[in-house]
Design goal:
The protein is an alpha/beta fold. It contains nine helices and seven strands, in the order H-H-E-E-H-H-E-H-H-E-H-E-H-E-H-E.
């Protein structure tokens, strides 16, 4: 352990870290900037984005939505610290940011009750993307949500088609990119049939990824699917 600490200090000396929000040296997100992130939540209809109580689908969208609701912790904008945090975590593989995301999740659920959910599940990565990245950020977030809320965690979804990254596509491209790419691992079907699931992802923009996950879950008899993300665009 001492050897690992020495190696870490050496790399931090050669490649110092700077806060993505204020530029202060020492951490990717300093404690002051992390504490300043507003975690009051984004509660909107998953389809039309109209603000709604607990993020439930509005009456006019309910028949077209595979999600009964969606909630997020913070808004997602190009200039927000959360945008930089997610980018560094996903694409530069800075797993040290996991502690910061855990803090935001704990802060959110300290004031918001998670009701109507039996199981927390992550959006899956294709095995090729997992090999490239080494971890699934959505699974890390889902495990954190499960730990904080006490709701059991399962990982029943699989991505059966390797797709290009959603961030590189426009709205229609995102919808087409994930169409039909998810399925439920057969051994999990008896465990989730008739249950209410919460699908966890990093960012919700068009909702296409979480919608496709929800459709795959409904096909095997899941009662209801809600969505949760760190950020919402």
């Amino acid at each position: 352990m001492e050897g690992q600490a020495l190696v870490r200090r050496f790399f931090e000396y050669i490649f110092p870290r700077f806060c993505v929000a204020c530029g202060r040296e020492g951490e990717n997100v300093c404690s002051a900037c992390l504490a300043a992130i507003d975690c009051t939540g984004i509660f909107c209809c998953p389809v039309c984005h109209t603000p709604s109580a607990e993020g439930v689908s509005c009456l006019s969208c309910r028949k077209n939505s595979p999600l009964v609701r969606h909630v997020a912790i913070v808004p997602f904008t190009e200039t927000s610290p959360i945008h930089q945090m997610i980018h560094l975590y996903k694409y530069e593989y800075l797993e040290s940011l996991e502690t910061s995301f855990n803090f935001l999740i704990e802060k959110f659920f300290f004031t918001h009750q998670l009701s109507g959910v039996d199981i927390v599940v992550p959006v899956p990565l294709h095995r090729k993307r997992f090999v490239e990245r080494g971890f699934n950020q959505s699974k890390s977030f889902a495990l954190s949500v499960s730990r904080v809320t006490g709701v059991p965690f399962l990982d029943p979804l699989q991505r059966v088609v390797h797709t290009v990254q959603q961030a590189t596509l426009d709205r229609q491209g995102r919808i087409m990119n994930v169409s039909g790419v998810f399925s439920v691992i057969p051994t999990y079907i008896p465990l989730i049939r008739g249950k209410r699931l919460l699908v966890v992802d990093d960012v919700f923009t068009t909702g296409s990824t979480v919608f496709e996950c929800a459709r795959a879950l409904h096909l095997v008899g899941v009662e209801a699917v809600s969505g949760f993300s760190i950020a919402r665009g």
